[in-house]
Specification:
Layout lengths: L8 E5 L18 E6 L3 H12 L6 E6 L8 H13 L7 E6 L1 H13 L6 E5 L2 H7 L4 E6 L2 E8 L4 E5 L8 H18 L1 H15 L3 H21 L14 H11 L6 H18 L5 H13 L11 H8 L11 E5 L5 E5 L2 H14 L2
Parallel strand pairs: 1-8, 2-3, 2-4, 4-5
Antiparallel strand pairs: 6-7, 9-10
Helix pairs in contact: 2-3, 4-5, 4-7, 5-6, 5-7, 5-9, 6-7, 8-9, 8-11, 9-10, 9-12, 11-12
Length: 357
Amino acid sequence: MDLGERSYDVVIGCGLLDEPSAWRSPASDASAMIVSNSTVAPLYLERLARSLQGRHYRVHSVELPDGEQHKDWSTLNKVFDALLDARCERATTLYALGGGVVGDVAGFAAACFMRGVPYIQLPTTLLAQVDSSVGGKTAINHALGKNMIGAFHQPRVVVCDLDTLSTLPDRELRAGLAEVIKYGPIADWAFFEWTERHLDDLLARERPALLHAVGRSCEIKADIVARDEREGGLRAVLNFGHTFGHAIEAGLGFGTWLHGEAVAAGMVMAAALSVRLGMLDSEAAARLTSLLARCGLPVQAPALAIERYIELMRLDKKRRDGETRFTLLEGRGRAVIHPADDALVREVVAQTIRRST
């Protein structure tokens, strides 16, 4: 991740939790705080803590509740409470051990505690490895919208240990593949075609396929973030499917659908909108829908009221001057930010909902 003096490595491999020397874990006299959750901690927390012994004079930990519904102020305060109770200081390093929620909450805590302390991402879900752990976005949810309260705070290193994917539930794996699939339509159609050919290998968790998928996804995201760290324009293309998807998550209640599931349905809707605007050929949209369906992901929108969709999408962070803007496809492998009239959006939502009834 090329960000000048804040550049860092994204390290991908196996057995990395046991080898902090392989990913430049800071050896210091300062303490460490491992932030994990009730699902991941029993599997990997002690293992990571043992590997950090000797690199930090004390290793503390805090266990958060699991689930998107807990990505809130209360959970964030649990991290602050643990840091203060342990008498942590500005040199303390936070280790985010878990999926996207853990990474976002720990990163936001690191951005805020004593006005900023270092942190390291150790994502244990596919979705976090290919997306949320890379790029420095940290946030918690608000009842009215996803990731509405947060900060940009880059990690010191991102460590993707593919071994942790062996304990990932199938549903979580499929949700992570939604973010893998996203990268092809927005930036590299050849990678999309590779994903079509190797989907069965990815679902079977074949290491060579996972290594390529995680690596290429991180390369694409790193290139985009390096050119637009704080989402002034270009970085918003990474949100393909997310304007619709975030509305689905908020409308159903956070945690009802996994983030990747909502993004999958959102990508189908965004591709349909792209076709309606004459920006994308219908065959490409159909291939995207087919690949998501093969993955076992939702390709139909939940039957929320159409006006509820419109209301929730008006909270999207890409909105400017009262106009909702979407990440759409301008051909295969190219995404752009484009406004769309509410009437046309209503038609796309209505058609998608009708297919689900």
